[in-house]
């Protein structure tokens, strides 16, 4: 009997890991880090409930760390088999995973120096050296079309429109000559967004796993161009600095694209834009190179110039260049990781800029429970950074228009495209309120059987 076990992204938005078993073979779909509150992060340190050495393959929907960031630990703990991903996802992994290791090492070293870690000495979850064996295991699958993993499993990718290379995976499971289809939505992007294609219509599926990050709300319909232009004008007029915590993949490119458009249409001044991320430039190059993901409009604009860079861009690769940004006292924009302010260089910028009311922090992505980003959104008066309480006097702005995730109606629009109701739908990758709101909407709108799986729960899949 085929079976699926939810080893992450069940009742929360991170740690995506789904173990599919058929005919004695085990395939792990995604291998993400848990991020957010401490209870979740501690799961990264527990041994997986299933032995990594017993997994036969991993297949990835996309490169974000909450879908791939646990791979170094999986390999460290005994996984010795191929990891399937398309070319863009592989290239992004080769940038993101070493960076994830560096961030963890830096945070551990900083904690050791300041003596505020719970571990003694503070340990990183994995090191940069432990990433190389992961990259060696990557095997390419096509961006579209079908790929046979084994007699039991074959996958077909469908564009998910979320980040470069992001896919929904249609997994066909064959056991005793009979087949069943499980569709993994992966993270779904938005319709009519710059740069990337729209999410492709889903294929028929017997079982469906659908993300539910924004299952309880829609993104504001107010134009992201107007919203960003307003913020930049307001902050620069009062002589402030705008800090944007953003992951290097996806949101940074979208923000840069919109900044460039606003500059070119004279809606904002040409301010210095500091991209404080050693990897943003490489990721932007990948976005330019993987044309198979580009929508028609972006393809046209690419031909005429450099739509992914603002006019006055400064890229800070080294720690020294990063520190120099602290000396800037005139209006500017700083884009730096991590996107939920859980770690990375943005913490130094927040510590430096939050106490000044002329400045602003723009939160453009999902802010998970327990993160500094969420605390800022909820009006925290101080923020704990590197063991100190930093007063929050800067303006905090949320622009959910820049989300890389489908909002509630976009999720329902994608779901409505299924040619027939799935036998069972599992809602994953959502906090409980978001997932149950989407569950109610699907029941009332489509009348489907919808389940919210729990962490470590298994279900039989009838083949
Ligand atoms: Zn994602």
Strand content: 15-25%
Rg, rounded, reads: 22 Å
What are the segments in which pLDDT stays under 50 over at least 5 consecutive residues? none
In the CATH hierarchy, what is the architecture of the largest domain at level 2?
Answer: 4-Layer Sandwich
Class inferred from helices and paired strands = alpha/beta
CATH level-4 homologous superfamily of the largest domain: Ribonuclease Z/Hydroxyacylglutathione hydrolase-like
CATH class of the largest domain: Alpha Beta
Q: What general form does the structure show?
A: globular
Q: Which fold name is given in CATH as the topology of the largest domain? A: Metallo-beta-lactamase, Chain A
- Largest beta sheet, briefly? 7 strands, mixed
What's a concise summary of this model?
30% of the residues lie in helices and 21% in strands.
Describe this structure in words.
- The protein is α/β, with parallel strands linked by helices.
- The chain has 2 domains: 2-217 and 404-461, Ribonuclease Z/Hydroxyacylglutathione hydrolase-like (Metallo-beta-lactamase, Chain A, 4-Layer Sandwich); 224-402, Rossmann fold (3-Layer(aba) Sandwich).
- Helices cover 30% and strands 21% of the residues.
- The strands form 4 sheets. It has a 7-stranded mixed beta sheet with strand order 6-5-4-3-2-1-22. A 7-stranded mixed beta sheet has the order 7-8-9-10-11-20-21, covered by helices on one side. The protein has a 6-stranded parallel beta sheet with strand order 14-13-15-12-16-19, with helices on both faces.
- A hairpin with a 4-residue loop joins strand 7 and strand 8.
- Helix 6 packs across helix 7 (251-264).
- The chain is globular.
- The N and C termini lie close together (7 Å).
- The relative contact order is 0.16.
- The model has no long low-confidence stretch (mean pLDDT 93).
- It binds zinc ion.
- The site of zinc ion has 4 residues, from loops.
- Zinc ion is lined by residues 62, 64, 162, 187.
């Amino acid at each position: 009997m085929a079976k699926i076990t939810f080893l992450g992204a069940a009742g929360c938005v991170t740690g995506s890991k789904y173990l599919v078993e058929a005919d004695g073979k085990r395939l792990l779909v995604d291998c993400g880090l848990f991020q957010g509150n401490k209870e979740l992060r501690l799961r990264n340190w527990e041994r997986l409930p299933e032995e990594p050495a017993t997994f036969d393959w991993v297949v990835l929907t996309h490169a974000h760390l909450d879908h791939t960031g646990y791979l170094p630990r999986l390999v460290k703990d005994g996984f010795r088999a191929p990891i399937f991903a398309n070319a863009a996802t592989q290239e992004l992994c080769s940038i993101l995973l070493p960076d994830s290791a560096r961030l963890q090492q830096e945070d551990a070293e900083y904690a050791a120096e300041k003596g505020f870690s719970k571990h003694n000495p503070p340990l990183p979850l994995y090191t940069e050296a432990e990433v190389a064996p992961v990259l060696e295991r990557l095997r390419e699958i096509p961006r579209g079309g079908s790929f046979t993993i084994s007699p039991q499993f074959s996958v077909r990718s469908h564009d998910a429109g979320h980040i470069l290379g992001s896919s929904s995976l249609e997994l066909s499971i064959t056991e005793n000559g009979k087949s069943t289809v499980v569709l993994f939505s992966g993270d779904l992007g938005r319709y009519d967004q710059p740069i990337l294609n729209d999410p492709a219509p889903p294929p028929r599926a017997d079982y469906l796993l659908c993300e539910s990050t924004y299952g309880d709300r829609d993104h504001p319909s107010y134009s992201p161009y107007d919203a960003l232009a307003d913020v930049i004008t307001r902050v620069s007029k009062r002589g402030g600095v705008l800090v944007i915590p953003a992951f290097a993949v996806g949101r940074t490119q979208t923000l840069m694209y919109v900044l460039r458009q606003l500059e070119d249409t004279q809606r904002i001044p040409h301010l210095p834009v500091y991209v404080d991320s050693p990897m943003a430039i490489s990721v932007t190059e990948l976005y330019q190179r993987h044309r198979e993901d580009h929508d028609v409009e972006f393809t046209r604009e690419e031909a005429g110039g450099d739509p992914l860079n603002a006019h006055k861009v400064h890229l800070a690769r080294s720690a020294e260049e990063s520190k120099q940004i602290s000396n800037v006292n005139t209006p500017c924009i700083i884009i730096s990781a991590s996107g939920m302010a859980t770690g990375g260089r943005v913490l130094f910028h927040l510590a430096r800029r939050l106490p000044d009311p002329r400045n602003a922090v723009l939160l453009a992505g999902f802010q998970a429970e327990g993160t500094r980003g969420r605390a800022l959104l909820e009006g925290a008066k101080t923020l704990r950074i590197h063991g100190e309480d930093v007063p929050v006097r800067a303006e905090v702005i949320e622009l959910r228009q820049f989300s890389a995730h489908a909002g509630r109606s976009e999720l329902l629009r994608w779901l409505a495209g299924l040619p027939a109701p799935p036998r069972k739908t599992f809602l994953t990758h959502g906090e409980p309120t978001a997932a149950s709101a989407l569950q109610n909407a699907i029941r009332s709108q489509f009348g489907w059987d919808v389940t919210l799986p729990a962490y470590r729960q298994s279900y039989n899949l009838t083949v």
